[in-house]
Amino acid sequence: MSAIQRIALVLTIVGAINWGLIGFFQFDLVAAIFGGQGAALSRIIYGLVGIAGIINLGLLFKPSTAVAREPEPRTTR
Q1: How far apart are CA 4 and CA 21, in angstroms?
Q2: Nearest to 6 by CA among 70, 59, 61
Q3: How far is 29 from 14, CA to CA, in rounded Å?
Q4: Considering only CA atoms, which of 47, 53, 58 is closest in space to residue 8?
Q5: How far is the C-alpha of 49 from the C-alpha of 13, rounded, in Å?
Q6: 32-44 pLDDT, tens per residue?
Q7: Among the four residues 8, 32, 37, 70, which has the most C-beta atoms within 10 Å?
Q8: Does residue 67 register a pLDDT over 90?
Q9: Helix or strand or coil: residue 21?
Q10: DSSP code of 26?
Q11: CB of 45 within 8 A of CB of 34?
Q12: What is the pLDDT of residue 31?
């Protein structure tokens, strides 16, 4: 996983936590920290989380290396 994908994954997790807070407690953490939903910095954060989600779509369709590996042959005793 590249550094960009890791950053995108962290931003996606931040977005998921924020959506969970909104859904369960009607509390928007990003807006509270950066000055409201309409503030420029909040909109930048929302935009970065959205871009991160698009980047992570690639991970959804990427084959897993653990699944792609062939099992090792068994040895007989």
Answers
A1: 26
A2: 59
A3: 10
A4: 53
A5: 9
A6: 999 999 999 999 9
A7: 8
A8: no
A9: helix
A10: -
A11: yes
A12: 94
Q: Which two tokens stand for residue 23?
A: 């859904």
Identity at 41, one-letter amino acid code = L
* Residue reference for tokens 């992570």: 56
The residue written with tokens 């897993």 in the block is 64
Per-residue tokens: 21: 């807070």
Is residue 61 within a helix (H) or strand (E), and if so which, with residue range?
Answer: helix 40-61
How is residue 74 written in tokens?
């068994």
DSSP structural state of residue 35: T
pTM of the shown model: 0.74
The token pair that represents 56 in the structure block: 């992570």
Burial environment of residue 66 by CB neighbours within 10 A (0 to 12, 13 to 18, 19 or more) = exposed
Instruction: Read off the DSSP letter of residue 49.
Output: H
